[in-house]
C-alpha cells in the first residue's frame, strides 16, 4: 500500500490526529516501516499533500470539509502562517463558470498570474500550471489505489496513530522544508540556480526544482545538484 495512501486514508475515515503513546520519532518510523510504508514516508506524504484542496479530497470522500486536519502549505507567500493545519477550500474567482475540473484549476492559477507571491516564488505562469497539473496527476494515482484498498486498511492502532502523528513521522518537518523552498529558493539553491537555468527556456527555479526535487536527470553532474532532501541538508 502506498505511504501517501495510508496517510490520506486514515484522515478521510475520520481518525483524528492526536499525539501517540509511542515515545519517539524513531519509534514511529519503525512502526510505519513494519506496516511496509516507505522509508521516505514523511517526504513522500508531504509532497503528495502540500497543495491538496477540499475539491480534490472530495474525489476521495464527498463529505470532506475544511475541518479535515490535513496540513498543507499556504499558497499566500506573504502570510506569516507558512503551514496551514488543514487543506483549504481554495477556488478561482470564476469557478462557477466552468463545469470541468481542469478549467477550474486553470482559472485558479491564472487568476494569480500577476502575483509574484502566489504558490511558488520565482515560477512563471506556465510552470505554476505545470505544477498544478502534476499534482492532480499524482492525486489521481493515489485515488485509484485508495479505491482498491479502502476496505482493507491496516488493523494496527499504532500504525494509524503514527501515520497521523505529523510531528514525529517526518511529514511536518518536510512540509516546512518544502515551504522554505517555495518562499526562499535562494536560501536552498544559492548560486547553483544559474547552473540549472543555463541554456534552458524554463525559469531558473523551475529547472532547479525539476532536476533536484523531482530527481530528473538534466545534464548536470550528480555532485552539482542542489540539496533538496532533509537528509542531504543535514549531511
- Neighbour order of strands in the largest sheet: 1-2
Total number of β-strand segments? Answer: 2
Query: What are the secondary-structure elements, in order, as H or E?
Result: HHHHEEHHHHHHHH
Q: Percent range for helical residues?
A: 40-55%
Radius of gyration computed on alpha carbons: 18 Å
Strand content: under 5%
**How many helical stretches?**
12
Counting helices, strands and paired strands, the structural category is mainly alpha
Number of domains: 2
Distance from N terminus to C terminus (CA atoms, Å) equals 30 Å
- Name the average pLDDT: 77
> Major sheet, described briefly?
2 strands, antiparallel
Poorly predicted ranges (pLDDT <50, ≥5 residues)?
Answer: 1-5, 9-20, 215-235
State the shape: globular
Amino acid at each position: 500500500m502506498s505511504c501517501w495512501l495510508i496517510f490520506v486514508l486514515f484522515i478521510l475515515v475520520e481518525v483524528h490526529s492526536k499525539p501517540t503513546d509511542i515515545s519517539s520519532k524513531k519509534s514511529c518510523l519503525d512502526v510505519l516501516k513494519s506496516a511496509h510504508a516507505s522509508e521516505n514516508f514523511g517526504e513522500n506524504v508531504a509532497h503528495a499533500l502540500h497543495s491538496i484542496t477540499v475539491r480534490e479530497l472530495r474525489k476521495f470522500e464527498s463529505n470532506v470539509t475544511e475541518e479535515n486536519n490535513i496540513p498543507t502549505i499556504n499558497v499566500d507567500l506573504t502570510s506569516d502562517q507558512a503551514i496551514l493545519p488543514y487543506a483549504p477550500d481554495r477556488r478561482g474567482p470564476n469557478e462557477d463558470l466552468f463545469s470541468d475540473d481542469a478549467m477550474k484549476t486553470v482559472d485558479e492559477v491564472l487568476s494569480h498570474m500577476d502575483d509574484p507571491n502566489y504558490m511558488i516564488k520565482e515560477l512563471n505562469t506556465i510552470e505554476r500550471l505545470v505544477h498544478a497539473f502534476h499534482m492532480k496527476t499524482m492525486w489521481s494515482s493515489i485515488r485509484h489505489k485508495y479505491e482498491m484498498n479502502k476496505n482493507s486498511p491496516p488493523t494496527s492502532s499504532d500504525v494509524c496513530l503514527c501515520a497521523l502523528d505529523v510531528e514525529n513521522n517526518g511529514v511536518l518537518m518536510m512540509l516546512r522544508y518544502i515551504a522554505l523552498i517555495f518562499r526562499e529558493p535562494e536560501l536552498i539553491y544559492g548560486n547553483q540556480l544559474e547552473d540549472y537555468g543555463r541554456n534552458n527556456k524554463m525559469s531558473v527555479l523551475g529547472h532547479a526544482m525539476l532536476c533536484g526535487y523531482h530527481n530528473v536527470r538534466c545534464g548536470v553532474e550528480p555532485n552539482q545538484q542542489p540539496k533538496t532532501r532533509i537528509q542531504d541538508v543535514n549531511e
